């Protein structure tokens, strides 16, 4: 194999990357969760140009989310690797405004089909399966540079964007039938990725 696609995260991903580096396994890794705490440090220099992340954002996002990430790091000396909380909270506030209520029984249905501008462009909670349809990015682990200056975990490395997919491109068909939302469905997840 010349490429490994992994859904590992946290300590499992950290140990996988460490074992690959220790074994001298020279393959590309495509991950979803390479920016989760501890993984970037474990990836280190050996992963430069070999570890890719597919996610709804990357380390060097422009605009408000980039500013929030910088402020978060200044305050907590940690990375805002869960950028999705921005879109999740925005979804919830938009649905509350639409429902004119904070009652979960009224807010949950207001989430279905909800469309808004997120930190990464157009976002929609698909009514049929309650998955957020949003832009996705492929980024690669590399040394920081003038164009991509954010140092993840203060390593001197970053996830630099390689390719972006607008929501209408990254969205894939679903055959799931919608079930009525209830309060337990307020947790929002993001959609599957598309690589071309």
Task: Characterize the structure shown.
This protein has 196 residues and is α/β, with parallel strands linked by helices. The protein is built from 6 helices and 9 strands, in the order βαβαβαααβββββαβ. Helices cover 31% and strands 22% of the residues. The strands form 2 sheets. A 5-stranded mixed beta sheet has the order 1-2-3-7-8. It has a 4-stranded mixed beta sheet with strand order 4-5-6-9.
Assembly state of the chains shown: single chain
Overall 3D shape? globular
Radius of gyration: 18 Å
Estimate the helix proportion, in percent: 25-40%
The main sheet orders its strands as 1-2-3-7-8
Poorly predicted ranges: 178-196
Number of helices: 6
Number of strands: 9
The succession of helices and strands, N to C, reads: EHEHEHHHEEEEEHE
What does the main sheet amount to? Answer: 5 strands, mixed
DSSP strand (E) fraction?
A: 15-25%
Summing up helix and strand content along with how strands pair, one would put the structural category as alpha/beta
Spatial separation of the terminal alpha carbons: 19 Å
Give average pLDDT, whole number.
Answer: 85
Short description:
The chain contains six helices and nine strands, in the order βαβαβαααβββββαβ. It has helices spanning 10-23, 39-43, 63-76, 84-99, 104-111, 167-170; strands spanning 3-6, 28-31, 51-55, 115-118, 121-125, 131-133, 136-143, 157-165, 189-190. Strand 4 and strand 5 form a beta hairpin.
């Amino acid at each position: 194999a010349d490429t490994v696609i992994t859904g590992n995260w946290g300590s499992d991903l950290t140990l996988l990357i460490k074992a690959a580096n220790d074994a001298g396994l020279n393959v590309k890794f495509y991950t979803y969760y390479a920016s989760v705490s501890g993984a970037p440090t474990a990836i280190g220099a050996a992963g430069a140009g070999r570890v890719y992340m597919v996610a709804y954002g990357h380390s060097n996002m422009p605009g408000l989310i980039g500013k929030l990430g910088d402020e978060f790091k200044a305050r907590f000396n940690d990375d805002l690797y869960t950028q999705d909380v921005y879109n999740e909270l925005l979804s919830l506030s938009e649905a509350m405004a639409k429902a004119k209520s904070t009652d979960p029984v009224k807010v949950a249905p207001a989430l279905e089909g909800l469309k808004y501008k997120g930190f990464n462009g157009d976002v929609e909670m698909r009514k049929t399966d309650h998955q957020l349809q949003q832009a996705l990015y492929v980024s690669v682990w590399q040394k920081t540079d003038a164009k991509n200056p954010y140092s993840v975990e203060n390593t001197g490395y970053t996830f630099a964007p390689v390719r972006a997919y607008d929501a209408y491109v990254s969205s894939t068909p679903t055959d799931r039938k919608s079930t009525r939302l209830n309060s337990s469905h307020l947790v929002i997840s993001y959609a599957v990725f598309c690589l071309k």
